[in-house]
Amino acid sequence: MKGDSIIVLLGPPGAGKGTQAEKLAEKFNLIPLSTGQVLREEARKGSTLGKEAQEIMERGDLVPDSLVAEIVRQRIETAGSSQAVLLDGFPRNLSQADCLEQLKGVRPLCLVNIQVDEEVVLKRLTGRRYCVDCGRIYNFDLSTPKREDVCDACGAQLVQREDDREAVFKTRFKVYREETVPLIEAYSQKLNFFAVNGNQKPQAVFEEIFAQLGEVDREVDSPVMGSEQRTG
Ligand code: AP5
Q1: In what order do the strands lie in the sheet containing 158-159?
Q2: Kind plus residue range of the DSSP H or E element containing 147
Q3: Is residue 197 predicted with pLDDT exceeding 90?
């Protein structure tokens, strides 16, 4: 992997993008960006962006491309030209991929698709809770708290993300199928694209990504989803 790469984590809601992003950022000293996390922070702060995004996120739809593109632009600029950036949750459709092509300049892209079955991600997300105080994540499959709905680390309350309710998950997964799957199909034609089996334990998924990233040191190929190639 080249030092100025942009690594993109792809996959359905609950694939484990955030979990792997944390491990990868630490291991490779990457500048991470989760667009979902930034939007949730903005919503908590009550900023104009957050207010606009919150309602859309709570019903499981995508926030307008222009808003998320601006977040990504700022993070890539801040990173400087020699630091690798890790994108979790962007791009999510072909139009955002076009935008990333513009923003990335000459940086090579490295595309990691975490493949997980729908019934597995549904179980993961409906079982996910986070601590309202310290933000620690629990999953009833992986790390059950000692006392129900109480954070082991700080004793604060554990709650469910609004968009992890089953009805909203269905919308998120539909949006994934309609918007993101075509992007993944286009990306799969690129040289530095690889898929990993996300149905395994987090450490096994990480080891698969780690092994693949070690192999990736090739020249960037030409963009496959430039708008000129999608017209007609
Ligand atoms: P975002 O926060 O990005 O949500 P998401 O992509 O749906 O992803 P999640 O955070 O739910 O799951 P993940 O794949 O990161 O998995 P995680 O590691 O957390 O986006 C939220 C919303 O923001 C969107 O719906 C949209 O409205 C908006 N948005 C964001 N980006 C946007 C964009 N580019 N354009 C427009 N709108 C945008 O793991 C999930 C759970 O599973 C956890 O509990 C974890 O502990 C557990 N887990 C993880 N890995 C494993 C494993 N291997 N085995 C068992 N359990 C596991």
Answers
A1: 137-139, 128-131, 158-159
A2: none
A3: yes
Query: What is the average pLDDT across 192-211?
Result: 96
What's the pTM value of the predicted model, to 2 decimals? Answer: 0.91
- Region for residue 60 given its phi and psi (left: phi exceeds 0; alpha: psi -120 to 50; beta: otherwise): left
CB 176 within 8 A of CB 13: yes
What is the residue whose two structure tokens read 């199928």? Answer: 177
How many CB atoms within 10 Å of residue 157? Answer: 12
As a whole number of angstroms, the distance between CA 13 and CA 27 comes to 23
Please report, for residues 8, 80, 120, the alpha-carbon distance to residue 77 in angstroms, rounded to integers and kept in the order given. Answer: 16, 6, 36
Backbone phi and psi for residue 98, each to the nearest 5 degrees, phi listed first: -60, -45
Is 206 a residue whose pLDDT tops 70?
A: yes
Give the pLDDT of residue 213. 87
From 20, 68, 142, 205, give the residue whose CB has the most ligand 1 atoms within 8 Å, as the site to mutate: 142
Which residue puts its alpha carbon closest to atom 50 of ligand 1?
A: 16
Q: Is 202 in the pocket of ligand 1 (CB under 6 A)?
A: yes
Q: Check pLDDT > 70 for residue 232.
A: no
